[in-house]
Amino acid sequence: MVELLSPVGDLNCLKAAVQNGADSIYLGLDTFSARAFAKNFSLNNLEKAIEYCKLRGVKTYLTLNTLIKNSEFNDALELAKSAYEYGIDGIIVQDLGLALALIKNFKDLPIHGSTQMTVHNLNGALELEKLGFKRVVLSRELTINDIDYICKNTNLEIETFVHGALCISYSGQCLFSSMLGSRSGNRGKCAAPCRLPFDLIENDKKIESGYLLNTRDLCALEYIPKLIQAGVKCFKIEGRMKSSEYVATVTRIYRKYIDLAMSKNEYKIDKQDLKELLQIFNRGMSSPRTFT
């Protein structure tokens, strides 16, 4: 069974994800979430969201995936305790100290290593396995061969991003926003300066201008069969700050192709589906062969 995990920024996105075939959703609260500028959920709405999903057989994962200050530690634990009591199916964590406290205090609650942890090789995955993590969301910089090697040599569940925004930096390691505007991506407040225009200067001469650091978005539709064969257990869609229409469209299309890849039918991508992906949000796609 391969899990399709969709982003949820509010209740409308939650319904869009569930009704379009998500096996699981991930969401954040008002604090300690790497998408601080998303609408996010209150504790009261979190309980309703979990109940809505459980009635429909969909798992819910909470993102407590920022770095935590000492003064915030107990508050983060209390949030996790509330989510646990409401029936959350897992918590996605970046801060190693918080993760270890959660593993110690909530022994039957699956803890997932966030992509912000920058786990990019087998040794990193094995360390998380030894510490008691259930799953790791691998760095988005990895090749299929890297992913295949990690999957085949660890008992951790392996989750990978398959669609959405990419960062110009290594996952979890960018300090660009902090340096320019004192807004840290590791605290959920990235200002995305890499999306701005820049001039490239060489020997005091401008040699290029434009959106030089602005990456295309990830689109892994054509690689779904290979990722399944590698042993990836969960495919993750980025987009907690995007619209419910975006969530519905991308979830529906990836549901279609995951099911197709798991069947005995020929794996062929319909150009109409590619057109819909481009129309719902288009920063360019990282898989140009698919979009030609």
Question: Can you describe this structure?
Answer:
It is a single chain. Helix content is about 35%, strand content about 15%. With about 290 residues, it is an alpha/beta fold. It folds into 2 domains: about 5-165 and about 215-280, Aldolase class I (TIM Barrel), CATH 3.20.20.70; about 175-215, no CATH class. The strands form 2 sheets. The protein has an 8-stranded parallel β-barrel, surrounded by 7 helices. Strands 8-9 form a two-stranded antiparallel sheet. Helix 4 (about 95-105) links the parallel strand 4 and strand 5 (about 110-115). Helix 2 (about 45-55) packs parallel to helix 3 (about 75-85) and helix 6 runs parallel beside helix 8 (about 225-230). The longest helix is centred in the last third of the chain and has 19 residues, at about 245-260. The model has no long low-confidence stretch (mean pLDDT about 90).
Task: Please name the defining characteristics of this protein.
292 residues; alpha/beta; TIM Barrel; 2 domains; eight-stranded parallel beta barrel; two-stranded antiparallel ribbon; 11 strands; globular
Number of strands: 11
CATH superfamily of the largest domain: Aldolase class I
By CATH reckoning, the class of the largest domain would read Alpha Beta
Strand order within the widest beta sheet: 1-2-3-4-5-6-7-11
Overall pLDDT: 91
Strand content: 15-25%
> Which structural class is indicated by helix and strand composition?
alpha/beta
What is the radius of gyration? Answer: 19 Å
Q: Helix coverage percent of residues?
A: 25-40%
Note the overall shape. Answer: globular
Largest sheet: 8 strands, parallel, barrel
Uncertain segments are none
From the 3D structure, determine the CATH topology of the largest domain: TIM Barrel
Separation, N- and C-terminal Cα atoms: 31 Å
Given the structure, what is the number of helices?
Answer: 10
Order of helices and strands: EHEHEHEHEHEHEHEEEHEHH
- How many domains is the backbone divided into? 2
- What's the architecture of the largest domain in CATH terms? Alpha-Beta Barrel
